[in-house]
Specification:
Strand content: 15-25%
Order of helices and strands: EHHEEEHEHEHEH
Shape: elongated
Structural class: alpha+beta
Strand order of the largest sheet: 1-2-3-4-5-7-6
Radius of gyration: 34 Å
Amino acid sequence: MNDPQYNLRRATVDDLPGLKILWDRARLQVLDLEKRLTDFQLLASDAGDLIGAIGLHIEGKQGQVHSEAFAQPEQDAKFRDQVWERIQVVARNHGLVRLWTREAAPFWQQQAGFAEASAELVEKLPASFGDAPGRWLMLQLREEHLAALSLEREFELFQAGQKQETEKLMQLGRKLKTILMFVLGVVLLIGFIFLLKLVIKNPSFFSPGSR
């Protein structure tokens, strides 16, 4: 028998009924999580059944891993790592500096690398992650100054790109002006030649005595 295949993806509205079941089994606040549907990264079977879900709420350059839920809690260790790999990819794609979590499973410290955050670090916690007292775990993904340098580099590249686009438009404008002047010159030349031929063929038409 072939091993079952699983898909990792972001949650959509179509997943809400299945997510509600997972959240209810995990004793999570279903009504609150409905509003944060798109936070969730899912693991689903090839038949479309939801196996597990973990939320990643992004605020600026920080992310909160939250509200993990699995269809078979006794197998959560088997599937949690797969969803965590997906979350890391999303975090990298968004250029996140650090991740926070209050999940209690030993996995987050023992395998994922989270550590208890100091009071100084907790002060950097975004307000949208919640201000409830308690222990926060944090995983530093990269240094903040490197992230700032990356943003500066991106801005420099953007400026360079804009400068190139402006130069291209100016070059195009100059080419169009040259073409327009050429066309105008040709029109004037044709008009002059036409007028010259008319004078040659009808010299009396332009003489003062012909009027």
